[in-house]
Amino acid sequence: MPAMSTPLASIFGSGFLVVVPILASAVGPFALPAMAVVAVIAFMVGSIVRHNILCAEPVLSKGSKRLTVLLERVSGFALVAAYVVSVCLYIHILSAFVLANFELDTAFNKSLLTTVIIGVITAIGLLGGLNPLEKLERWALYVTLAILVALLIAFAIYDVDQFLTQDQLILPAMPDRSAWEIATIVAGALIIVQGFETTRYLGDSYDASTRIRASRWSQYFSLSVYVLFVALAQPIVPALNGDYGDNSLIILAATASLLMPVPLIVAASLSQFSAAVADTVAAAANMKEGSQQRIKLRWGYLLVGVAAMALAWSGSTFEIIALASRAFAFYYLLQCLVALSVCRKLRERIYFVFIALVLGFVLVFAVPAG
Fold it and tell me: Which 3 state secondary structure label does DSSP give 125?
């Protein structure tokens, strides 16, 4: 369904590029169950979004509950901050993949290229608006899905060949980490499957039931692909020799097939640029709405761009991923409070409190891989 394109584009935006090295760094051979845990938590958080589409939006449209309106307004500003971090993250990953192709992948070069690209997006937004670039989203999704399918096939062929020739599948070694370290790193991976919340803000294009179905089925599809992707990648991870970087997927792709790295870099560049544009537009639109039209779109683009460029120099890709996870955890936590403010059933309230506690853990304790 067309309504699924936006959440799918966001969910697949950067996660598949970094999920394998993050989980391998955290839990080694147990990456598959770790991915399953992240998927379950993401689906539970998605249920909060779907609940609010059904139950909170009518209350918000009437403005009958002051607390619900206040919580929703605060969560809107939290989402803007999360989008700023994600814009920086998307372009940082783009820079890592592009620079790796030229063997120029240093921290300084990644920050510099990230700043330049975000500056270009900001300038385009200031001069003429970003609407023409938004059309890249659907094409980026198609290209990303095509490359994902190709990678899944290449990984599966490699795994079968390894099993037939060696009579076993060699999995990555378990890193020397405590249970607490593992929990906090996996918590920092929440951003990998972020994007399902976008259906919450497509009310001008689709009715509530359509958006709820789009959110649910986009999660069914994307989370299944992520679990399969991690499972098939595990026997190839030893090729990294314990060196897990933000562009490690290029090495894994080249190990599976020499034909894969170039298409992967093209897909990564297109998907990350498109996702950054989409989040810039969304953040600026939220600023305009939250400020009651006082902040115009072009100045919203400027604020987002300047903040994202500053973040580009704040740390590594994995550090920005952990920061993005915490930023979105804060937004989702506020959405839990919105849900609680309109919920009357005790069982649902207990469920929402449990999810809020999980998100609180992510918000406070999430740390980067590495």
Answer: helix
The per-residue pLDDT for range 128-160, each reduced to its tens digit, is 778 777 777 778 888 888 999 999 999 999 999
The conformational region for residue 296 under phi > 0 = left, psi -120 to 50 = alpha, else beta, is beta
Q: Which two tokens stand for residue 142?
A: 């198609």
Residue 184's nearest CA partner among 367, 370, 1 is: 367
Residue with tokens 């990998």: 192
Could you tell me which of 318, 45, 8, 346 has the C-alpha nearest to residue 186?
318
Task: Give one DSSP letter per residue of 228-287, joined into a string.
Answer: HHHHHHGGGGGGGTT---TTHHHHHHHHH-TTSHHHHHHHHHHHHHHHHHHHHHHHHHHH
Q: How far apart are CA 341 and CA 66, in angstroms?
A: 10
- b/e map of 42-53 (b: 16 or more CB within 10 Å)? bebbbbbbbbbb
Which residues, at least 6 apart from 256, have a Cβ–Cβ distance to it below 8 Å?
Answer: 151, 154, 155, 157, 158, 236
**Is the model's pTM score more than 0.85?**
yes
pLDDT, tens digit, 9 for 90 and up, residues 269-324: 888 888 888 888 888 888 887 777 788 888 888 999 999 999 999 888 889 888 98
Under 8 Å between Cβ of 251 and 82:
no
How many angstroms separate the first and last alpha carbons of the chain?
A: 38
Which amino acid, 319?
E
Using left for φ > 0, alpha for ψ between -120 and 50, and beta otherwise, residue 257 falls in beta
